[in-house]
TrEMBL record:
Any Pfam family the entry gives: Lipase_GDSL
GO terms, molecular function: hydrolase activity, acting on ester bonds
InterPro entries per the UniProt record, alphabetical: GDSL, SGNH_hydro_sf, SGNH_plant_lipase-like
Provenance organism: Oryza brachyantha (malo sina)
Signal peptide: 1-38
Protein name: Esterase
Length: 394
């Protein structure tokens, strides 16, 4: 790309050039939301058209609809059975079908967002773009290099990189200050889910929880805060910021910590309590930051409560159409009590597949099924798992 205002955005670009274009997308068609203070239960979100003409999303594999597949086309996640439920083929989504962001696009009357690295011209992003990359982190790849982690599974497409991608798209579609202001004010931004991989990578590389992983939380929150401020400064009016899922109920985590956990580590539903407590710790820090971030009354920031939404179907699966006996078991995996013996158990030669993904919460041990994502999206849009933290004065 010759300049940030170029109308040609070829995916065949160097990492430096790639760093020029991509950003958030997500959630609600908000007419209004119920304000709550930190510590209160989530408010109800009223869904409406909201005047949004496009969406932009940042994040990781929870939202990636094909960016990593451009970079790694031969990976197992880009083969069947991934994508089998809705698309009938792999699309680069880490799911059997649609993601939360896809359901949001449908509700807004928008097409599924074009993955940034699959776009060829600026016009491909006229109605929005998906900048999320599976494995992406809030903190930079260099940070984890200095931490001494193996970078094999940590792509160089952190939150800052995705923000630069978005800026490139923005300036290719809007040139004057007036055009940029209108463009930003009629766009919906989904900032995440991001941050989960900042913890996943060191967890999966056996790093110390107390001495290293837990200490990352303030750094991750600061990165998310900076991204929100960048978007607001560019003119964004509606930003949705999801929290993290309850990792203590995730099959891959349950497998990893099974041998070191005692009965007292588990709750009544079979999830590991201290891991869920860590998700709560991150989410509280995130929500606290959202309360404090300066913004004027024209800016709406919504916290999407992925944690409690996922817990709802984990704790009451039958009520919501899932099976109790498989609620903590991956639909597609490679054996073990949680069908998640390895990180890439789905799509490999030893993988096995459940007969009905719609009855499972977990798809491949780390990511949810389309049925579970649909549940999360519906309850983000229609309540009760989203709220608008009270704003700090600008």
């Amino acid at each position: 790309m010759a300049s940030s205002r170029s109308s040609s955005l070829s995916p065949a670009m160097t990492t430096t050039t790639t760093t020029r274009m991509m950003l958030p997308l997500f959630l609600l068609l908000i007419l209004f939301a119920h304000s709550v203070t930190a510590g209160e239960s989530a408010g109800h979100l009223a869904a409406g058209c909201g005047g949004f003409t496009r969406m932009f999303s940042l994040g990781d594999s929870i939202t990636d609809a094909g960016n990593l597949a451009v970079i790694s086309p031969n990976s197992t996640f880009n083969r069947l059975p991934y994508g089998e439920t809705f698309f009938g083929r792999p699309t680069g989504r880490f799911c059997d079908g649609r993601l939360i962001v896809d359901f949001l696009a449908e509700e807004l009357g928008l097409p599924f967002l074009t993955p940034f690295l699959r776009g060829k011209t600026a016009e491909d992003f006229r109605q929005g773009a998906n900048f999320a990359v599976a494995g992406a982190t809030a903190l930079s790849q260099d940070f984890f290099k200095e931490m001494g982690l193996d970078l094999t599974l940590i792509p160089p497409f952190s939150l800052d990189v995705q923000l630069e991608w978005f800026k490139g798209v923005l300036h290719s579609l809007a040139s004057t200050d007036e055009e940029i202001k209108k463009f930003m004010s009629t766009s919906l931004f989904l900032l995440g889910e991001i941050g989960g991989n900042d913890y996943n990578h060191p967890f999966f590389q056996n790093r110390s929880f107390t001495a290293e992983i837990k200490l990352l939380v303030p750094k991750v929150i600061a990165k998310i805060e900076n991204a929100i401020k960048v978007l607001i400064d560019l003119g964004a009016k509606t930003i949705v910021v999801p929290g993290n899922f309850p990792i203590g109920c995730v099959p891959r985590y349950l497998t990893i910590f099974q041998s070191t956990s005692s009965p007292k580590d588990y709750d009544a539903f079979g999830c590991i309590k201290w891991l869920n407590d860590f998700s709560v710790y991150h989410n509280r820090a995130l929500k606290s930051m959202l309360h404090k971030i300066p913004r004027d009354p024209t800016v709406t920031i919504l916290y999407a409560d992925y944690y409690n939404t996922a817990l709802e179907i984990t704790r009451h699966p039958i009520k919501h159409g899932f099976k109790k006996e498989t609620v903590l078991v991956a639909c597609c995996g490679d054996g073990g009590p949680y069908n998640s013996n390895s990180l890439f158990g789905c799509g490999g030669p030893s993988s096995n597949l459940c007969s009905d993904p719609s009855k499972h919460v977990s798809w491949d041990g780390l990511h949810l099924t389309e049925a579970a994502y649909k549940f999360v999206a519906h309850h983000m849009l229609h309540g009760p798992f989203a709220d608008q933290p009270s704003r700090a004065p600008k």
